[in-house]
Specification:
This protein is an all-beta fold and 226 residues long. The protein contains no helices and 18 strands. A hairpin with a 5-residue loop joins strand 6 and strand 7. It is elongated. It starts with a strand and ends in an 8-residue tail after the last strand.
Length: 226
């Protein structure tokens, strides 16, 4: 069953310009050793006035070949959709040693999407989800980065669609988190437990400075972005 989650975060006279970071950094085997979370969104709300952002998650899960660029940002290409419990094999085309391809999926040995590397070389891979609005060489939004998957080894995404939000302004979208974020998440949610459309008010307490998200609308069309 296809799952789509449209989340709208909105503020009104927040009182201080504030940047939030969205990422999927729930605990999985090998976290910050062989697999690393990737920054999904970085959103900045103004001190005064109205502002809203909408982000969309889908359960069209993907694996992709990944390149690490300057600033530790990850780019993806040659992406391939997989369902939980399916496995694919990444190989080099016989006629072109520079062309990678994924095999048709087969049933795996566990409940997670898995890629087996049979390219005769080490590969960097990214796991994420498909987004038709992503304007890059791949529709795959990277959520987890698998570093240097050895030839003959598997990359298994123990995927948990648990979104966390942090008050952080020193990161960029698609940046690989090589270490845990130093602050505590101010919001956490399994996205599968939400309705298709959910709107949250982003608010700051003028006395304590604490920031919170309050759900104001669920299961209805979102307001337009200001």
């Amino acid at each position: 069953m296809s799952i789509i989650r449209n989340l709208t975060f909105q503020s009104n006279d927040l009182g201080q310009e504030t940047t939030i970071l969205l990422t999927f950094d729930a605990e999985v085997e090998g976290l910050y050793d062989t697999v690393y979370p990737v920054v999904w969104k970085v959103l900045t709300f103004p001190k005064t006035g109205l502002r809203s952002f909408q982000v969309t998650y889908t359960n069209d899960l993907t694996f992709a070949k990944a390149d690490v660029m300057s600033g530790n940002l990850v780019d993806t290409y040659t992406d391939f959709k997989l369902k939980p419990g399916q496995q694919t094999t990444l190989t080099l085309d016989d006629d072109d040693d520079d062309t990678l391809s994924f095999s048709s999926p087969v049933d795996g040995v566990n409940d997670y999407p898995t890629v087996k590397n049979e390219t005769r070389d080490v590969q960097d891979l990214a796991f994420g989800f498909s987004s038709p609005t992503r304007l890059t060489s791949s529709n795959s939004v990277p959520a987890l980065f698998f570093k240097e998957v050895e030839d003959g080894s598997n990359a298994t995404a123990q995927w948990k669609p648990v979104l966390r939000i942090y008050l952080e302004s020193n990161y960029e979208e698609t940046e690989i988190l090589v270490d845990p974020i130093g602050s505590t998440a101010i919001w956490e949610q399994d996205l599968h437990r939400l309705f298709r459309n959910t709107t949250f008010n982003f608010e700051r307490d003028s006395i304590t400075g604490n920031c919170t998200f309050t759900k104001i609308k669920e299961g209805m069309p979102n307001r337009r972005a200001w």
